Amino acid sequence: MTDPDDTFGDEALAAEYVLHLLDADERRSFEARLSRDQDLRALVHRWEALLAQLGEDVPDIAPPQRVKTAVLDAVGPPRKTGRRFLPGWPALLGGLAVAGLAAIVLLTNVLGVGRDLEPAFRAELSSEDQSVVLVASVIPATHEIIVEPVAGTPPAGRVFELWLIAEGATAPVSLGVLESDGPTRIRVPDEIAPGVRTGTVAVSDEPPGGSPTGVPTGSVLATATFEDL
Amino acid sequence: MTTRDDIEAMIARVALRDHSAFSSLYDATSAKLFGVCLRVLNNRSEAEEVLQDVYVRVWNKAGTYSVTGHSPMTWLITVARNLSIDRLRARETRTGGIDRALDIVDDRPGPEEVAVARSARAAIDDCLDELDTARADAVKRAYLDGDTYKDLAHRYDVPVNTMRTWLRRSLIKLRDCLTR
């Protein structure tokens, strides 16, 4: 483009990159450096944050509804928001069973037997087509999550991995890989345990041994939140 | 009022393909991002198309959001602004760089839309005030209007080299002001 004024070196170059002021050649060579230079990436991030303040000042303008419709269409059909656990008649029976269970819990509480060792809340993780259904129950006293497969197994050569996104967290935390053919008991680390009740659990399919990166790498089959039992 | 934490939580859930969180994220942030797209592109139908691309990008990239270390709005604004500038540059290539001043359109935000903006002045405004008006203006034009060095040189009637030196100095001054 021009003779660059190199007085400010990478600092200015990073700003120009963020502003899209570099010409094609400069941009390419900057990006090549960026891929291997962490300090340079940090400079770019800093300029992005600094200049984004100019964007914050731009007045809000509500886009027409059709954009939202198009956006939601573009990312696929909406997931059914959690199939009602035991719908219809079974729900009634389930209700009676829960009532019965509550009576038992009450009794055992009175007797002081088995208190706290019952699951206190539960989430049903079902994939959109219902081909995979898992039920996660939590025993708060022992910080345990028990995941029971109801339907479906992982694809051949893959495993299911359970994740938690605590309320307000910015990234999912792995709770562990699930057994492919039976219930899995997972002891949740103490520092994570308080966030389970209000968090979201998710199950993804991953290579054997679980995600190598610490975030889900395969498809996320289902997400759910817990409901008190 | 949606807080920063709310938006971060929505992004985390979007990373796990949570459609309802995605819908909430759209509701909470699309007016700001549409404002940015419209400001850069100055054309409603193009801004709508780019806004759609922005959210598809957000859907696909939500999992990598946390590694940027940005605040959620910084991240979203950066995505919206970058895709808008890409669109702007593509348009210029197509039209052979016809002066954009010719297609200033009337769909700039109306007065009532402007009035709802600006609850608090960002720190950057105070620092821009410390720059010479023309220089502050050049920084904004580069970011919000996608002006190139050539556009700016033409506007301020200086050689491109001079423009580049000018803008670089202004940027460094701005950074110094914001970090002191």
UniProtKB/TrEMBL annotation, chain A:
Q: How does it sit in the membrane?
A: Single-pass membrane protein
Q: Which domain of life, per UniProt?
A: Bacteria
Transmembrane as a keyword of this entry, yes or no, is: yes
Keyword annotations: Cell membrane, Membrane, Transmembrane, Transmembrane helix
- Where primarily located? membrane
Region (Disordered) location: 199-219
Transmembrane ranges? 89-112
Query: What positions does the domain Anti-sigma K factor RskA C-terminal occupy?
Result: 98-220
Location of this chain's protein in the cell? Cell membrane; Membrane
Gene3D superfamilies xrefs = Anti-sigma factor, zinc-finger domain
Q: Does the keyword Transmembrane apply?
A: yes
A Pfam family cross-referenced in the UniProt record is: RskA_C
> What name does UniProt use for this protein?
Regulator of SigK
Record organism = Rhodovulum iodosum
Lineage at the top is:
Bacteria, Pseudomonadati, Pseudomonadota, Alphaproteobacteria, Rhodobacterales
From TrEMBL, chain B:
Name the keywords, alphabetized: DNA-binding, Sigma factor, Transcription, Transcription regulation
RNA polymerase sigma-70 region domain residues: 25-92
Looking up InterPro entries in the UniProt record yields:
RNA_pol_sigma-70-like, RNA_pol_sigma-70_dom, RNA_pol_sigma70_ECF_CS, RNA_pol_sigma70_r2, RNA_pol_sigma70_r4_t2, RNA_pol_sigma_r2, RNA_pol_sigma_r3/r4-like, WH-like_DNA-bd_sf
List the Pfam families hit by this protein, alphabetically: Sigma70_r2, Sigma70_r4_2
Chain ranges of the RNA polymerase sigma factor 70 region 4 type domain: 122-174
Q: Transcription among the record's keywords?
A: yes
Would you identify the family this protein belongs to, as annotated? Belongs to the sigma-70 factor family. ECF subfamily.
The protein in question is named RNA polymerase sigma factor
The record lists the organism as: Rhodovulum iodosum
The major lineage groups are: Bacteria, Pseudomonadati, Pseudomonadota, Alphaproteobacteria, Rhodobacterales
